[in-house]
Specification:
This protein is of the alpha/beta class. Helices cover about 40% and strands about 15% of the residues. Helix 6 links the parallel strand 2 (about 140-145) and strand 3 (about 165). The structure holds pyridoxal-5'-phosphate. Pyridoxal-5'-phosphate (PLP) binds near residues 194, 225 and 271. The site of pyridoxal-5'-phosphate has 13 residues, from helix 5.
């Protein structure tokens, strides 16, 4: 599809719809002429050129990429109207669309009845899940792994509940034995299992965590903000297929968070939280004088901690899922390509003389480090590669660094000389399917940088 053509169509279609309400004249105070706009626009465009090329496969750093053109057009069309999904009257069209996409996300995880909504981010989605956790188990705390997203401990602080970090195994997954002894004390009400850690893409053993938690009457929340859409690859044949056990267990957990603005091709401002028990809606009930209810059903503003939310986010996701549905053959193909790219790069790293694989990728994150004799040398070389890569005068390459502790490092590579308490290693998120055909280029560029 041609983005420019459909953007223009979106603008004309919405203007035509606006004209159907009869003539009106925009107020003078809002007037901006083309002569005024031109230079300001040029300044914006020239400042935007200072970005890293998130769209290009040479950008293999953080979890960043532009939204799909379908989402851009869907977002723009709805944004020209600017509905607010805090209430059905604010988003009479995009509110129902939000319910439809949330039902599709819930079905992807195997939740039958459910209650959920879109959020501004994964952080807010997790905050909602922890808020419900607190309300259901007053006085009991939250457990998450030491590799869980940093916002869990921060949100526990916000909610005034205690958060406990559980250790991880040699692949960065929650240590279930350690969890079991923690739960035996009876002070934890909810465990957060991370299905795809942000640093390494490690998948906590959700099925084992669930079994342990249930034995102790503890709830399980799954933070799949980054990894959630990989459930589409669970049990699939071929190299991209994933062990289905942790993914299938999500259906029996209490809540799940997934970020359509990470792996769902959406612009920022789109997370989602889904609860298995619709009755948790009771914790959200409020009586704001500003929300005007037209339905007796709990509406979106009544099941969300946030008030205003962009209806355009729901429209963009709705349109995207119509064209790239939540199936192995739909969005699954996009994730599969990134996963194969990660496996391909890992195989190349294992043969490299100048770079070493830090650990086998579980999803689409590759972790590696310069072949140096000690931790301090690895740290310095990682930083140099990162800097030299992005400032290379021709064909720059963009990666990210990840700080790992000395302990985590030796668990994976026992022979390393430890002369520091940790080191930055290199990390690449291959979340663009185009990476698959670009891996050999990335690998040789990184090898060149490591040799220099
Ligand atoms: C990104 C991420 C978050 C936070 O989500 P935001 O949308 O950035 O607020 C939480 N948990 C995990 C596992 C993540 O990867």
């Amino acid at each position: 599809m041609e983005l420019e053509r459909w953007l223009n169509s979106a603008v004309s279609a919405i203007e035509e719809w606006q004209r159907s309400f009869g003539d009106y004249r925009q107020h003078d105070s809002l007037e901006v002429t083309d002569e005024e706009f031109g230079p300001a626009f040029e300044e914006l465009i020239s400042r935007l050129a200072g970005n890293y090329p998130f769209f290009h496969p040479s950008y293999a750093g953080q979890m960043l990429k532009p939204p799909h053109a379908v989402a851009v057009v869907g977002y723009l069309a709805a944004m020209l109207i600017n509905p607010n999904n805090h209430a059905l009257d604010g988003g009479p069209v995009t509110g129902p669309m939000e319910k439809e996409v949330v039902a599709q996300l819930a079905a992807m995880f195997g939740f039958e009845p459910h209650l959920g909504h879109l959020t501004t981010s994964g952080t807010i989605a997790n905050l909602e899940a922890l808020y419900v956790a607190r309300e259901l188990h007053k006085g009991r705390g939250i457990a998450y792994s030491a590799e869980a997203h940093y916002t869990h401990s921060r949100m526990c602080g916000v909610l005034g509940i205690s958060g406990t970090a559980v250790g991880v195994d040699s692949r960065g997954r929650m240590d279930v034995a350690q969890l079991e002894s923690l739960l035996a004390h009876g002070e934890i009400g909810t465990v957060v299992a991370t299905a795809g850690t942000t640093g390494l893409g490690a998948i906590d053993p959700v099925h084992e965590i669930l079994a342990v938690a249930r034995r102790h009457g503890v709830r399980v929340h799954v933070d799949a903000a980054y990894g959630g859409f990989f459930t589409l690859l669970a049990g699939q044949d071929g190299p991209a297929g994933l062990d289905p056990a942790p993914w299938l267990a999500i259906r029996d957990c209490d809540s799940v968070v997934v970020d359509p603005h990470k792996h769902g091709l959406q612009p920022y401002g789109c997370g989602a939280v889904i609860f298995a028990d619709p009755a948790v809606g009771r914790f959200y009930v409020h009586d704001s004088p500003y929300t005007y209810f037209t339905s007796s059903e709990l509406h979106l503003g009544e099941i969300s901690l946030e008030c205003s939310r962009a209806g355009a986010s729901a429209a963009a996701l709705w349109l995207t899922l119509r064209l790239l549905p939540l199936t192995p053959d739909g969005l699954g193909q996009v994730l599969g390509a990134g996963r194969r790219a990660a496996l391909d790069w890992a195989a190349r790293l294992e043969l490299s003389e100048v770079l070493r694989l830090y650990q086998q990728p579980e999803l689409d994150i590759v972790s590696y480090y310069p072949a140096q004799p000690s931790l301090a040398a690895i740290d310095a070389a990682s930083e140099a590669i990162l800097k030299r890569g992005m400032t290379a005068p021709s064909e720059p390459v963009f990666v990210s660094t990840l700080r790992v502790s000395a302990d985590a490092f030796v668990r994976r590579h026992p022979d390393m000389t430890i002369d520091a308490d940790g080191a930055r290693i290199l990390r690449s998120v291959l979340m663009k399917p185009e990476s698959e055909t670009y891996v050999s280029m990335l690998h040789s560029r990184l090898e060149e940088l490591a040799r220099a």
